[in-house]
Design a protein that fits this description.
heterotrimer; A mainly alpha; B mainly alpha; C mainly alpha; B: mainly alpha; disordered C terminus; C: mainly alpha
Chain lengths: ~110, ~250, ~600
């Protein structure tokens, strides 16, 4: 339990990389990029956790209670917005690729090489 | 590279990278014992100095407000990118664009879906507004609330015809909402400069912690971000759906 | 108040342009964009002058240091950062002018995207906070993906943008993992505070791997081998004004990040390993320079040729930065400035060819541009400028880098410079000879992949408008004449010494104390030989290739072993990500086993 989140973060990153490399469908590829992005969330949240800490919201608990790190949660929020933005762009590209190339398989995209 | 060569290559590289991750994470303290002065300091000062009870919003919209400005504009730029990427080209085929798998028909819209969606539209908007304005009090804020607000047009789309949906959500409304929200953030920063402080310094009256008017400039920024995110995601939805419009008009 | 403007102003006007999208005309929107860019440039120049003696530190939200913890985000502005932001503004101006006529700007969106791109590059260069740098990196990437995929009607454009977007996004998440690790170790996000916290700790695998992740993640943007595959694809398909920005300034940002992050955060703790780090990064730079040069010569698409030439030159700039000495960094900065302008002008010339003849393929354009003397002059001036002939802008940078390399024991670097400069210029001269003079035989290479480039301009193609020609001409001439700016070398060395003074950086941010930096004198005598050799070599290779069948046979026999290298650039995104993973793992393991 002590190191499980770090292992999960590493596993997600590696699985995502393998998925992107071996993917046969662009939508699947984009979702694998999302998996890579999720690994960073797990890492950040694990880093921010404090034993015995509660959520850093002081509206119903005393202001000096032991709370987890709010900074990494704020960083994670930023990262989620970045993920949404990049996924939106990539999915738009995928839609256009399907329209212009007729396929979503990266192996069949051969317009530029060399 | 052929598929097989690529697979071998990535498996070897990933194995090496797994070893790298192991070496990187091993020196970390066990879960729950990572010490960060930054986080502890923020937790200690949000209520006394800024009257904000949600420390995450305090970090996002006050202590590190400039990062969030950049983040908001990332979403803004991406939505603009989606609009640019999905724009209609002059050489687009005028005929019907087959977007379905052959041999399958589109099932008619289910009444259960339509009724449920109709019933959820108003609660979704209300909930979204609630989350947006309570950012400085409880978990929430502009981004989270904005996404929920953006789900309202999706629900309208699910329960009505496309023409009705476009009447409710016009492109102009989404564009103006998005741009106004984006500009609001920078304008709040300029307001701080005008009041004699640094950019995005929280100089407005702080109110009583735990109320809607606490936090100084944070509620205003929250509303701006909520508008921007709601408008932006609705605009992205419209950009994707415009593809559909080509077909249906035939 | 002013440090905010290079970021806030373009963003504000980008939002305004988006709000007014169907209300104002394209002309007016271009005017607004040009105005915002010029204001940004003026402020960057002011910041450049103001930071000459010590860094300018600006705390956002007035959240300053408390108990040694940097609570807020700081902009830590030094001459190189302000200069880079200003250079980005200059190139954005050129891009805006080039796209005045005939260009499909999709309402205001093109201008708004360029403004967002400029704001992100400015913020990236000026910031002193690690996570803030990442946020601006992502903003820059989002704008870049949209601008790269602009010509959606062109199927190759979508593939190129996809390769670009996927590789750079994965690289950004390596950076984020590194930032997370550093935050766990130091509890800080401010670069100066991180440096101070790291220096009181030990160098273990966590610190080294975080270093590699962050630096190599940013180096993907710079297209360093083996992370370079995406750049040629992206340049081949992006509109020409966008290519100017990509090749001129975006690739330099990764090297700026390397320098900034090393000197601000890692130098206090890693300075004992400087010789090893120098060897590592110089080797990577050399590998990049050679790969770029070889691949450049094999291309027939002019934009891809220029893109690989960028990769080669960027490898050379990296060796300068990797010497970790004031003269090396100063030389790299001057070289980057001159290269950015010359390469920008060359891309605009290619854009003119695309506008007039609807192609950028060297063989398709064979002899077609015979009656374009002005464009030919610009193109050949740029190609010759790439050789770094004596007294040109690139030569000024090369001089300083050579002097620094010699004192670090890397005297052989000059031969890499001569080779890379010569071969890339030869490729450009060869292409120019075919296109503008109809020299050489007409070649029908069936096995070479042909990329049909859709025109990016609409309307009449019978003439080249001044708004296209003038930016190209000004950029090339400017890049060549940079070497003649008085006291440039001394000013660059002073700025580099200030940049590399980690103690002064930490003191100005954390203690609000401003330490003076004393700069060494600039080496006096400019070297003539390397530039002349490169120039001569380039002309000879190009002429031999064009006019001698025996020469062509010889060169194709020489290139045969490089066919494997050529095939590796497959255009398949899975291959690129595999190489990215491989490169990251290799560099991380190298660093861990050599330095701990």
């Amino acid at each position: 339990m002590n190191y499980l989140p770090y292992a999960v973060a590493a596993w997600l990153f590696l699985v995502g990389l393998y998925g992107v490399t071996s993917s046969r469908n662009l939508i699947h590829l984009i979702m694998c990029v999302g998996v890579i992005q999720s690994s960073s969330y797990v890492l950040l949240l694990a880093i921010g956790y404090r034993v015995g800490g509660v959520a850093p919201v002081f509206v119903d608990i005393p202001a000096n209670s032991r709370a987890v790190d709010p900074v990494v949660q704020a960083l994670m929020l930023t990262d989620i917005v970045v993920e949404v933005a990049v996924t939106a762009l990539l999915l738009g590209l995928a839609v256009q690729v399907h329209k212009r190339h007729g396929t979503l398989n990266p192996d069949r995209l051969t317009k530029i090489s060399g | 590279m052929t598929r097989k060569v690529r697979r071998v290559f990535i498996l070897i590289s990933a194995a090496a990278l797994a070893w790298v991750f192991f070496l990187a994470y091993r020196p970390l303290p066990p879960l729950g014992f990572v010490h960060s002065q930054y986080g502890d300091l923020v937790n200690a000062i949000t209520v006394p100095e800024r009257h904000i009870t949600d420390a995450v919003s305090a970090v996002n919209f006050d202590v590190r407000a400039f990062d969030t400005l950049g983040e908001e504009f990332i979403l803004f730029t991406s939505v603009m990118g989606v609009l640019v990427l999905m724009r209609r080209q002059s050489d687009e085929p005028a005929g019907h664009h087959e977007d379905k798998a052959p041999g399958r028909t589109v099932p008619p819209a289910s009444d259960a879906v339509r009724v449920t969606a109709l019933l959820l539209v108003a609660p979704a908007m209300l909930f979204g507004l609630y989350i947006v304005v309570h950012g400085q009090v409880s978990p929430g804020g502009g981004f989270q609330g904005g996404v929920i607000l953006a789900s309202a047009p999706v629900l309208v789309y699910l329960c009505s015809e496309y023409a009705e949906f476009r009447r409710v959500l016009s492109m102009r409304l989404a564009e103006v909402s998005e741009a106004a929200g984006a500009a609001t953030y920078i304008l709040m920063g300029l307001v701080s400069l005008g009041l004699g402080g640094m950019f995005l310094e929280n100089l407005l009256p702080l109110g009583r912690s735990g109320t809607l008017t606490s936090g100084g400039m944070v509620p205003f920024i929250d509303v701006g971000v909520g508008l921007e995110v709601g408008g932006g995601l609705s605009l992205a939805l419209l950009a994707y759906l415009e593809e559909l419009v080509e077909e249906k008009e035939q | 108040m002013l440090p905010v403007a290079p970021v806030a102003l373009p963003l504000l006007f980008a939002a305004a342009l988006a709000a007014l999208t169907k209300i104002i005309s394209q002309r007016f929107s271009q005017l607004i964009a040009v105005g915002a860019t010029l204001t940004s440039l003026a402020i960057d120049i002011y910041l450049l002058k103001g930071s000459a003696t010590h860094d300018i530190v600006y705390w956002f939200g007035n959240w300053r240091i408390r108990d040694g913890v940097a609570l807020g985000i700081s902009f830590t502005i030094d001459p190189f950062g302000a200069g880079l932001a200003g250079f980005a503004a200059v190139l954005t101006l050129a891009a805006l002018l080039f796209s005045s006529e005939f260009f499909d700007t999709a309402g205001n969106h093109f201008h708004a995207l360029l403004l967002a791109f400029l704001a992100a590059m400015s913020g990236f260069s000026l910031t002193g906070d690690m996570f803030n740098m990442f946020v601006f990196f992502e903003l820059m990437s989002a704008a870049a993906f949209a601008l790269c995929g602009y010509k959606t009607a062109d199927p190759g454009s979508l593939q190129g943008t996809l390769n670009f977007a996927v590789t750079n996004t994965i690289a950004a998440y390596f950076v984020l993992t590194g930032i997370g690790l550093l935050y766990a170790r130091t509890g800080a996000l401010n670069m100066a505070q991180m440096g101070r916290a790291l220096s009181s700790g030990r160098v273990d695998t966590l610190v080294l791997i975080a270093f590699v992740f962050v630096i190599c993640g940013y180096l993907v943007k710079t297209a360093i081998v083996p992370f370079h595959f995406w750049l040629a694809d992206a340049h081949a398909v992006a509109p020409s004004p966008v290519c100017v920005l990509f090749s001129g300034v975006m690739v330099d940002l990764g090297l700026f990040a390397l320098a900034r992050i090393y000197w601000a955060t890692f130098n206090p703790v890693l300075h004992a390993h400087l010789p090893g780090l120098t060897t590592l990064f110089v080797s990577i730079g050399v590998a990049t320079a050679l790969t770029g040069a070889f691949m450049c010569y094999l291309q027939r698409n002019v934009k891809r040729l220029l893109a690989f030439s960028t990769i080669s030159h960027v490898g050379l700039i990296m060796t300068g930065v990797a010497l970790f000495a004031p003269a090396g960094l100063a030389g790299a900065a001057i070289y980057a400035l001159a290269h950015g302008m010359v390469k920008g002008g060359l891309f605009l010339a290619a854009g003119i060819l695309l506008h007039r003849f609807q192609s950028v393929d060297e063989h398709d354009l064979y002899g077609k541009a015979r009656r374009e003397p002005a464009t030919a002059a610009v193109f050949f001036a740029g190609a010759v400028g790439l050789t770094g002939f004596p007294f040109s802008g690139l030569a000024a940078g090369h001089d300083l880098m050579s002097a620094s390399a010699k004192s670090a024991g890397f005297d052989w670097l000059r031969w890499i410079f001569i080779f890379a400069d010569g071969v890339t210029a030869a490729a450009a001269l060869r292409a120019g000879g075919r296109i503008f003079f109809g020299w050489g035989p007409v070649e029908r290479e069936e096995n070479a992949p042909k990329h049909e480039e859709k025109p990016e301009t609409e309307g009449r193609h019978q003439y080249t408008p001044a708004t296209m020609f003038i930016p190209a001409c000004v950029l090339v001439v400017g890049g060549l004449l940079v070497g003649f700016v008085p006291d440039l070398k001394q000013a660059a060395i002073a700025a580099a010494t200030q940049f590399e003074n980690s103690r002064a950086y930490a003191a100005s941010v954390l203690d609000s104390q401003y330490l003076r930096t004393v700069a060494p004198a600039a080496p006096e005598a400019p070297e003539m030989l390397p530039g002349l050799l490169a120039l001569l070599g380039a002309i000879v290779i190009a002429l031999v290739h064009l006019f001698s069948a025996r020469g062509r046979q010889l060169s194709s026999a020489l290139w045969k072993p490089l066919r494997l290298l050529h095939r590796l650039h497959s255009g398949h995104v899975g291959d690129y990500v595999a190489f990215l993973t491989f490169g990251m793992a290799c560099f991380a393991l190298l660093c861990v086993y050599c330095f701990s």
